[in-house]
Amino acid sequence: MNEFEFYHWIAYAWTGLAVMVFILLFFVQAPYGRFTRKGWGPTMSSRWGWVLQEAPAVLLILGFWWTGDRRFELVPLVLLVMWQIHYVHRTVIFPFRLRGERRQTTVLTVLMAVVFNVVNAYMNGRWLFFLGPHYVDSWLMDPRFIMGFLLFWTGFIINKHSDHVLINLRKPGETGYKIPIGGMFRFVSAPNYLGEIIQWGGWALACYNLGALSFFVWTVANLAPRAFAVHRWYQEKFKEYPSERRAIIPFIA
Ligand SMILES: NC(=O)c1ccc[n+]([C@@H]2O[C@H](COP(=O)([O-])OP(=O)(O)OC[C@H]3O[C@@H](n4cnc5c(N)ncnc54)[C@H](OP(=O)(O)O)[C@@H]3O)[C@@H](O)[C@H]2O)c1
Questions:
Q1: How far is the CA of 218 from the centre of ligand 1 (A)?
Q2: Would you say the pTM of this structure is higher than 0.85?
Q3: Ligand 1 center to residue 19 CA distance, Å?
Q4: With 90 as the cut, is the pLDDT of residue 173 above it?
Q5: pLDDT tens across 203-240, in order?
Q6: Half-sphere CA count of 24, side-chain side, radius 13 A
């Protein structure tokens, strides 16, 4: 089997696994953040967990770019910059903005995220920088790229703004939970997840390949079930929780 065949084999298996995870996560919440609980093995610092689990997404994509055969072509470079702006922030800025400094996460969640980021970096980076067809520069003017690019940055802004609101709910040293207000929280309980889904939907459109599509499917699989669990959690915890607020799709669900 050559690498091209291997890649496609992995892509279908990996996307199929995402569909199974999507169903499973409606019944079991991943044990981190507000759903951290006993019985899931050893724990570690939540902050350093984020750094460790997201670092492969930054480093491997750089490695695939550097060892690829289209290092200085325009479209791969634009896509590389989009990816890295997100992942450098997620790896070295986001974790150090978190409050509730002593929060713990399970080592299991971190290890699963490492595996996800390694496979996802391969699926995206290896295709973009070596296995896939070369993009012509005019792809940047293609309606699919333009729409994807706009969606990517729209999702990025919603995601970052919503995470910013959540992080600032706590004063330094606080650890509890409050009702978030403002921005997209007017409409949904998990706008950070909504933004992330829009962002990687945009990425899938801008790249227009199987690896990017599988990333989008995985993002929905990880975050949509959790958004519903978070929404129920808020409704149970706060009697005064806004009744018009939905879980993840404004006005709908
Ligand atoms: N692409 C993917 O598959 C994927 C998967 C997972 C996460 N992510 C992204 O990673 C980022 C973080 O995800 P997450 O699941 O950790 O988000 P989260 O549960 O919403 O938490 C984000 C931060 O805000 C704090 N927080 C949340 N709700 C709060 C409240 N009501 N009051 C006070 N503080 C609150 C959390 O504290 P605690 O940690 O103490 O709860 C945490 O520090 C998001 O942008 C998400 O989209 C992406």
A1: 17
A2: yes
A3: 22
A4: no
A5: 999 999 999 999 999 999 999 999 999 999 999 999 99
A6: 9
Residue 100 has pLDDT above 90, yes or no: no
Q: To 10 degrees, what angle do helices 74-88 and 46-67 make?
A: 170
The rounded distance, in Å, linking the Cα atoms of 173 and 103 is 11
Tokens found for residue 7: 């890649």
Among residues 123, 124, 129, 122, the alpha carbon closest in space to that of 76 is found at: 129
| Ligand 1 atom with least separation from CA of 196 | 47
- Which residue pairs, CB below 8 angstroms and at least 24 apart, start in 110-119? 110/44, 110/49, 110/52, 110/53, 112/30, 113/49, 113/53, 113/54, 114/52, 114/53, 114/56, 116/218, 117/53, 117/54, 117/56, 117/57, 117/60, 118/56, 118/60, 119/10, 119/14
Domain boundaries, the chain: 3-237
Closest CA to 186 of 154, 162, 163: 162
Contacts of 36 (CB under 8 A, 6+ apart): 43, 103, 104, 105, 106
CA of 69 to the centre of ligand 1 (A): 37
> How remote is the CA of residue 54 from the centroid of ligand 1, in Å?
14
Which among 167, 175, 217 is the best mutation to test ligand 1's pocket, defined by most ligand atoms within 8 Å of the CB?
167
3 state DSSP class of 133: coil
Q: Are strands 104-106 and 43-45 parallel, antiparallel or unpaired?
A: antiparallel
Q: Are 234 and 189 in contact (CB under 8 A)?
A: yes
What is the CB < 6 Å shell around ligand 1? 33-34, 46, 98, 100, 103, 159, 163, 166-167, 169-170, 177-178, 180, 192-193, 196, 218-219, 222-223
